[in-house]
Amino acid sequence: xxxxxxxxxxxxxxxxxxxxxxxxxxxxxxxxxxxxxxxxxxxxxxxxxxxxxxxxxxxxxxxxxxxxxxxxxxxxxxxxxxxxxxxxxxxxxxxxxxxxxxxxxxxxxxxxxxxxxxxxxxxxxxxxxxxxxxxxxxxxxxxxxxxxxxxxxxxxxxxxxxxxxxxxxxxxxxxxxxxxxxxxxxxxxxxxxxxxxxxxxxxxxxxxxxxxxxxxxxxxxxxxxxxxxxxxxxxxxxxxxxxxxxxxxxxxxxxxxxxxxxxxxxxxxxxxxxxxxxxxxxxxxxxxxxxxxxxxxxxxxxxxxxxxxxxxxxxxxxxxxxxxxxxxxxx
Length: 331
Hints:
Elements: H1 3-24, E1 40-44, E2 70-74, H2 77-81, E3 85-87, E4 92-98, E5 121-126, E6 131-138, E7 150-151, E8 156-159, E9 170-177, E10 180-183, E11 188-189, H3 204-207, E12 217-223, H4 229-234, E13 248-257, E14 262-268, E15 274-281, E16 286-295, E17 305-315, E18 318-328
Antiparallel strand pairs: 1-2, 2-9, 3-8, 4-5, 4-7, 5-6, 6-9, 9-10, 10-11, 12-13, 13-16, 14-15, 14-17, 17-18
GO molecular function, one term: metalloendopeptidase activity
Organism: Arboricoccus pini
Domain M23ase beta-sheet core: 67-184
């Protein structure tokens, strides 16, 4: 090997090492106290499209034009009311806070004018080496920190809410380095093309939990009626107990649906026998979609016990599914 080639190889190795060290110098914890895929989901990602369209880092459709961060969402507004902490992803100093803006209605309709305060109630934190994080849409009155306060990684900042431009309960996390928006899933700026290889900034223990899911199914359930979309978003679809003489209706709530996707809802009885199988085709691209269907009660009524529901979304050879169950008791 020539000296020139050896020198080039050495320089490349040094640059790679420097890049790896830089990438590993700032690691992120979760901005929300939850278990991804179980009681919270990544619903929207940063936009990497160069035009008026949208593409997340995996070249998927989870987000909207110009979206500059990552949205960690809860199942529904009822889960939000249980009180889910928003937490600092890394140690730093609180630079600014905002509180006092109301949550939007639980059914997901934007009723309160947020003007230019899309973030709603939020917290801005500065970290070492030019890093900065911003946390948006916190529940009013829940902020637990003040400007100038030092915070630790994992420290509670407030509670998940729906303030500002929020039609579902979530925390929006924006990450910046020297003022430039960075995607934490591959440590690239928003102007980098989707599919660009990079180093995830999440702590190693979180990376498998935060693996990309093209269609997050966040809610499945059984109701005694066909629930309205707003009921499902609010978490009110199962307010009434199941009864032997009432219908059994399965439903789902999912994000990132595309034209041509297939949705299947399956209901099984206490003995494992099939109660109903329903199939739907998605006719239009849908950032968020609910579907429901089921069966009327038989003449003799439904037998008591635990009923199961499975929701599946199929796109070509790829499928996503979520299971749920609910008890039906004798009157």
